[in-house]
Amino acid sequence: MRDMLDVAKRHVRSAIDRATHLANKKCSSRTFEVREHVYLLISPRIKFSNRTFKLFPRYCGLWRIVKTIGKVAYKLDL
After folding, report:
1. pTM for the full predicted model
2. DSSP track, 33-65
3. pLDDT tens profile 15-45
4. Quick check: helix, strand or coil at residue 1?
């Protein structure tokens, strides 16, 4: 019984490690400096009648970074 529990724990740990590895492959570490220009990602959450989001833009404008607030948070000159 104890052996089966150990095997199950190893399988769960292996699945978690595999999922973490695959998720981390998609992530990238980016940092920006003040006065650089960045695009702002927009995600349409509001549904309009008879309109498709397929052709909506995903990013808008080139915005200048005014201030760094945190590691991944920036104040933009909108």
Report:
1. 0.54
2. -TT-EEEEE----SPPTT--STTS-SEEEEEEE
3. 999 999 998 888 877 888 999 999 988 776 6
4. coil
**31-to-27, 28, 41, 54 alpha-carbon distances in Å:** 13, 10, 16, 30
Q: What is the pLDDT of residue 48?
A: 58
Q: Quick one: which of 61, 70, 67, 62 has its CA closest to 37?
A: 62
Q: How far apart are CA 33 and CA 23, in angstroms?
A: 26
* Cα–Cα distance for residue pair 23/41, rounded to 1 Å: 20
Q: Quick one: pLDDT at residue 34?
A: 92
